[in-house]
Amino acid sequence: MKIAAIQMVSGPDVAANLARARHWLAEAAAQGAQLASLPEYFCLMGLQDRDKLAVAETEGDPSAPIQRALREAAAELGLWLVGGTLPLRTSDPERVRNASCVYAPDGRLAARYDKIHLFRYDNGREAYDEGRVLEAGAAPVMLQAEGLNIGLSVCYDLRFPELYRAMSFQPGRPPCDLFCVPSAFTYTTGQAHWELLLRARAVENQAYIVAPAQGGRHENGRRTWGHTMIVDPWGEVLGCLPEGEGLVLAELDTARLAAVRSQLPALQHRRL
């Protein structure tokens, strides 16, 4: 399966972001991708955190513009589409879920994962606290697509290896073949840890990683690290886009996956 990771530099205009996302999804499909993933907050990088509340949608609302755009893109382009993240309403009007919705090639919603780990960082010069407007998710989510077992995660989740192990060792299910990590890493933390963490999660779980990111200077003044990547189960970086809009494509080779797991059967040696 050919997979695509799309990098964006999203701004505060939802319609403009949706148009750019559709452009790159069409490009991915034209280049033969069967699965494409958008970055975290692809639909909105607001001027302030609370901007998410104003554009939040109700899951399944047929008139909701962000969900409609994802659903239509998946169906019209014939893609498995990991829709980055979008804000979905909760029972608390002051909180939203940061949700990653996956659409099948027929346009149906195949899975929804709500980001579990909420980012907080303060080095005295820049500060972030997602918990001010986000409500954390509670459970891992996996799905099957084209015979592949896929695990969903978002950005800061990458720092918590137990989430990926939990997805890899579900009773009655084979290990995940691919993990999706749509992200908007800060420049500071991304420069230090992004590639290191992606390759570690790939190696320890012997799985492919598709990691689309926000990458550049945004209208709100924030700079994201970018470096959208696809990593193979041996930890080899198959493609990387440092900054700016674009896409990374790579082949998810099931024979390569099987060979890595056969030659070094680490998943079978797990004891704890």
From TrEMBL:
Keywords: Acyltransferase, Hydrolase, Transferase. SUPFAM superfamilies: Carbon-nitrogen hydrolase. One of its GO terms (molecular function) is hydrolase activity, acting on carbon-nitrogen (but not peptide) bonds, in linear amides. It comes from the Bacteria. Residues 1-254 form the CN hydrolase domain. PROSITE patterns: CN_HYDROLASE. PANTHER family: DEAMINATED GLUTATHIONE AMIDASE (PTHR23088:SF27), NITRILASE-RELATED (PTHR23088). This is Acyltransferase. The lineage of its organism: Bacteria, Pseudomonadati, Pseudomonadota, Betaproteobacteria, Burkholderiales.
